[in-house]
Amino acid sequence: MGVRLEFDGILVFSLLGLNVLWLAEVCEGGLTSSYVRNDQLSRDMPLDSDVFRVPPGYNAPQQVHITQGDHVGKGVIVSWVTPDEPGSSTVHYWAENTELKRSAKGIVLTYKYFNYTSGYIHHCSIFDLEFDTKYFYEVGIGNTTRKFWFRTPPSVGPDVPYTFGLIGDLGQTHDSNRTLTHYELNPVKGQTLLFVGDLSYADAYPFHDNNRWDTWGRFIERSAAYQPWIWSAGNHEIDFLPDIGEGKPFKPYRNRFYVPYRASRSTSPLWYSIKRASAYIIVLSSYSAYGKYTPQYKWLEKELPKVNRTETPWLIVIMHCPFYSSYIHHYMEGESMRVMYEEWFVEYKVDVVFAGHVHAYERSERISNIAYNIVNGICTPVSDQSAPVYITIGDGGNLEGLVTDMTEPQPRYSAYREASFGHGTFDIKNRSHALFSWHRNQDGYAVEADSLWLHNRIWKPASEESIIAAV
Ligand SMILES: [Fe+2]
């Protein structure tokens, strides 16, 4: 008789003393969660909330955040704001257990948005760091310096374990705070956060009150100053308001959040790529032109063939608007971009596409819908093992609240859906296995409300031992 053990979607059979291991992707087969949550509209935290506290001291640096600063993870961009005067744009940094302090000089800028003038926004790139090393860094001058730290990723390579967090549509409500706290206290311990767009929701206020960009910057500092947040832009970053003279899209976002787009030969910070550990991450812009001949299209067309899966087995795409979502709100908004890019995602075996926009959680089966050519009428998603898994993680907890209305019946391509706030983790074990988990805010920090083992389609497990090592 075989003995069956089941843990996290792994089925283990012990048969006549011989261990036979089956790994099955967890496919609930179209489950709409029956979980009952509090549906009250989320309210923004008041301006005097402790999470928005201005650090003490004259002109003290605030809103400190970091992101990857080059293509491979040896660079970091440090950004911060000084409120009263430009001060210094220099970052002092040193590796743990060393005496040698180095410094890098950045730039400072300000911008105006209608009747708002920003503080002094600093961006400083640090290059040529050692891999897998803890660094301390210091910003500010005089009596108001502030010190933080980060850890660089291991050198890029196929079997480097690495854990990404996933948050989208965060805003600055009490629920946003719960989401960030759950991410911080999740024992899985995300090392870098992939942010799928819609950051501050400052545009919900009259004249897109940019003071709410400042409060948001102070809110996320407790995480974003210590680990890179990888940015992608959503519709709430567009800030296009020509009636009040603000006709340049993405103005606050582009001034506040610098990304290393030139390192991947992109011509815009709205789309770019990075390598980090064993992952290749492509960031796309749902609200920039993506049709044929556009800069984003041409960049992606050249970018996908460059991905060396021997070096980075895991190919992840992040963007704001999902291709597949079975919620009624925002239904089919990603359709035209899907028509343009889905075929490439299948051809290049993208492992997983993370998106936000829809304020809920949803995970798809591996499906594609690329057979349609207008005359053949073949326009239903079909099972396709070359296709990505599509995950909507737009449930960060902003002031617009959850979306709860779903198309019925649940489409077969939708594996699991639930309208609750939460965050995700993508835990790469080695070249062949990664565990995605979704964590609902109402649960304990270690609870996985939904999870899926992803098997790399390029790298099959070499042996039973490698599978056991993975789990
Ligand atoms: Fe959105």
Automatic annotation (TrEMBL):
It comes from the Eukaryota. The keyword Secreted does not apply. Residues 60-155 form the Fibronectin type-III domain. It catalyses: a phosphate monoester + H2O = an alcohol + phosphate. InterPro entries: Calcineurin-like_PHP (IPR004843), FN3_dom (IPR003961), Metallo-depent_PP-like (IPR029052), MPP_PAP (IPR041792), PAPs-like (IPR039331), PAPs_C (IPR025733), PAPs_N (IPR015914), Purple_acid_Pase-like_N (IPR008963). Keywords: Glycoprotein, Hydrolase, Iron, Metal-binding, Signal, Zinc. Pfam families: Metallophos (PF00149), Metallophos_C (PF14008), Pur_ac_phosph_N (PF16656). PROSITE patterns: FN3 (PS50853). Residues 1-29 form the signal peptide. SUPFAM superfamilies: Metallo-dependent phosphatases, Purple acid phosphatase, N-terminal domain. Its EC number is 3.1.3.2. One of its GO terms (molecular function) is metal ion binding. The keyword Disulfide bond does not apply. Its cofactor is Fe cation; Zn(2+). Belongs to the metallophosphoesterase superfamily. Purple acid phosphatase family. This is Purple acid phosphatase. It comes from Trema orientale (Charcoal tree).
